Amino acid sequence: MSERFNRSRMARSALVASAALALTVGTAASAASAQAASHNVRRACAVTHTPGVASCMALIRTDITQKLEAAFGGKVPVGFGYGPSDLTTAYNLPPSSTVLNVAVVDAFNDPNAVSDVATYRSSWGLPACNTTTGAGCLTVTNQNGATSPLPANSGTTGWATEESLDVDMVSAICPSCHIYLVEANQPSIADLGTGVNSAVSVLHAVAVSNSYGGSESSSETTWDTKWFKHAGVAVTASAGDSGFGVSYPSASQWVTSVGGTTMPTTSPRTETVWSGTGSGCSKFEPKPSFQHHKGCKHRIANDVAAVADPNTGVAIYDTYDQGGWLEVGGTSVSSPIIASVFALANNITAGTFPNSYPYAHTGNLNDITVGSNGSCPTHPFLCHGEVGYDGPTGFGTPNGDGAF
User: Fold this and answer.
1) Is 268 exposed, middle or buried (0-12, 13-18, 19+ CB in 10 A)?
2) 224 near 194, Cβ under 8 Å?
3) pTM confidence score
């Protein structure tokens, strides 16, 4: 990443942060308004507040003209956000060589997913799909883990953009992994959760990313047991893009809750709390044994974080419901990044829940100490970056894969 491009990102991020600060008045709604007020970002999927229904969490930059790969002649796209080498450099990640299964769970079908991820990989110089070993390959399945029949095409729902984002981020972090795109029939927690179960039991994924969320519910501990409690598998979930506040399934005591950062530069890496990331105290989830922080008697979101600010976003490729290359953000970016780092580490022990691992290896994380996503005067750590643990970024972002 060039110094000039990094300076441009830093200036742009500072402007957005200033606007967000001026508009934030201490609630999740105000943080959401602040994020929207930048006027250069839109949500890929419509927001829902219906219990048991989820929205994808991809955010799209609207001030960057999308372009097909033909405009770059098969070369690296310029001006569309961070690519694989930027991310692996920022997070000090080793190269990948082991073929492990990583699943991303979404709703509806993206008929261009396989061809689009192939373009993403070739443009950034990542290895093509090895049909013998499965390394670098994308397999698309329905929520039961079968390759047919696939659900209805996503149309204008925005879920295809989310799917492109998810598979591209797994490619970026773990190029040797075999990616499974598990497509639910609809964005209900029941269907998406069925997809998670299939990713584990049918597809044998070592890590499963969920870049979606919805309102908490008094039923969620039952949902945990039915769909999101999988010992020996890293199940990650996006914390949300509306500022201070908690969403499900990231609130689950059994998943790795992933917050978001603003990252103006990658070399050297500079990160602060992203004002749009979710965080907070769950209303219903018991506090897991590895969380000992006062100020919340229930589960605290989050555990770790990665880049999510769309104004310091990532490049993805989508020709189904977008125009090719585009820059995106949201905690939809951070969840598949962290799931892929778990796979890269290849260190998951049977019978354990990997969301506890970062708490035992804080020295292998970048502590994010600056920034906030709202107002929480009684217990400031829930919405402010602090030394050590804080709500928005947990114990921090990856510094190598030793915490995973």
Assistant:
1) exposed
2) no
3) 0.92
